[in-house]
Amino acid sequence: MFVVSCLLLTFLSVGLSVSIGTMKLPFLSVYEYLFNHISGVTYPMGTNEFVTDYIIWEVRLPRVVFALIAGAGLAVGGAIMQNVMNNPLADPYSTGISSGACFGVAVAMVLGITVSIGSQTENLGVMLNAFIFALIPMMAIVVLAPKMNTSPATLILAGTAVSYIFNALTTVLLMSTDAETLATVYQWQVGSLSEITWASMPIMAVVNIAGIILALILSDKLNVLALGDDSAKSLGLNASNMRIVCLMVISFMVASVVCYAGIISFIGLISAHIVRIILGSDNRFVIPAAAAFGALFLIMSDMIARYLSPQDAIPVGVVLSFIGAPVFLALIVMSKRRVW
Amino acid sequence: MGMQDYYRVMNRNRLFIAAVAVLAVAIGAYSISISHYYIGFWESIEIVIEHIQGIEPVGYKETLEDFIVWEGMVPMAFAGVLVGLILGVSGAVMQMVIRNPVADPYTTGISSGALFGVTLFVVFDFGIVGLGSQMGQIVNAFVFSLIPLSIIILFSVFRKVTPALMALIGIAVMYIFSAMTTLLKYTANPDDVAAIYSWSVGTLGYVGPECILPLSLVAVFLVVFMMVMHRRLNVLSTGENTCQSLGESPVRTRVICLVVVSVATSIAVCFTGTLGFIGLVAPHVCRRFVGSNARHLIPASAAMGALMLIAAECLARSVGSFGVSVGVITALIGGPVFLLILMRQRKSAW
Q1: Is the CB of B319 inside 8 Å of chain A's CB atoms?
Q2: B126 with B194: CB under 8 angstroms?
Q3: Which ipTM was obtained for this model?
């Protein structure tokens, strides 16, 4: 019920979101144009309809679709991470993904070193750097896992320590740069959807949709994992391996979002909690509901941010916090359910 | 495990705490001589002793040296040891009270509240009290840092909140403050943004002699209070149900501890900015050596926090020509060491 209503709202907000911008379009005609485009209607060059179609299809829709998938991915990532780490304060970035990515961006911008060859001039170099550095903490965990204990507390503490190290390195790099680079890196840290085009879509969409489906399949096992390592073992689940697999999946999902949109925080932490307050903590419901809610939440926030400032002056993260936090607090006051 | 073993462990723990504490004080004393002025270690000590004895310095050079040591280096040494101590204890208590290994002294939202207060002051010159610039900023940081805590307390009055929920409320309020700070920064000029940034990273560079008294009082009170509470803290970290069956009111103890720790941390923060990492890591390192009993964990965390901060400060100052801040050093050196400790630990302390 909750999932369905979230999906419906999402569908509505897609239309609303596309219709908002410097050029106002009527709400209903957006669907008409979309339907026409999909069914192959083309407009002659230069007409009003052609321009409208172009704006909808090439400028606004990629951003909305990206928000849809990224929101769902981040929310599911947060839900899984909180389960795997057995910690309500965990979010998708808990293993140090965000600070790793940030360091990658700083390295690319300040030192001009990119991991890929020959793409230094393009944005692509920066993005690849972000992606690869975001995966470093995860790779470290996978390599070291057989040698150390992989209890949730150890993993999350290791992740926090890695974050601190990367942040310190980033600070060292940023100390020596000019104000302009600093501003770019800073903007990247806050997260923004303004650079999104269709080109950003394929990898991100494939990885995230696959991750969400995998999470849905694994949701039973996540429930078992939440009972604790010993109970999981007696029910025939290798908790440690399960944890590592989940971490890998989350890392890829989040890294693919982060390298295009920067670090969009809060949504991963709070979506799963809001859903848990409403639905309880059974993962078979939490994961699909978190996906639907995350998608809705990010689209709405992006929409409000663009409505308030068509020039993209307000970062989406700010709107997420301003809406999400009061909603969360209000839900805590109203609910009688004990979740954590 | 016999009585003998028990006493052996007790003695080993006491030895560990004493050793770390002595090391921290020694480095603190040594730090007085590390600056870019050429005043040697014994010379500095001499100046300090003479100042305490009330001997007036003669001559221009002596007066200047006396000023540098007494107004600059001594307060920094005190602040390094005391703030480290406060952060270490606060982190340990917070982790026990919230029952979460990633809790740190700022879990109740102190850092973002304080940062918002400072931002308001820097950008709009808005101070709660109209005192001089330095004081206004300190007061702003202090007052705003406690807003998230009061919201948490407000919630716990009206309904039953679990420790995890307390932390989540703190985080939610934190995000609102961060969002407001971000918006304010857009309207600010680059100089103000730089000032805010340097405050958010945390530094001992701005402390003056006037901070010694409040910090000492807070540190002493905090340690004494938590040592008095140590049995309750132990009970609290065993969990809600055990707690009740042992005849303790978990909510009351928890709220009292939260308030004491948060106020102490706020006072430390408003002098030095939000120094991260130490409050999180010092207690975990100590758990590895002295176990999770609050009776040993609290003094050990106090000593370890003091040691980490003052040692990092010394290092930061000796490579000082690059302007490396103390927070960077703690993370760059403390981070890998902490990872090593985590890896070598066979069994989780949680």
Answers
A1: no
A2: no
A3: 0.82
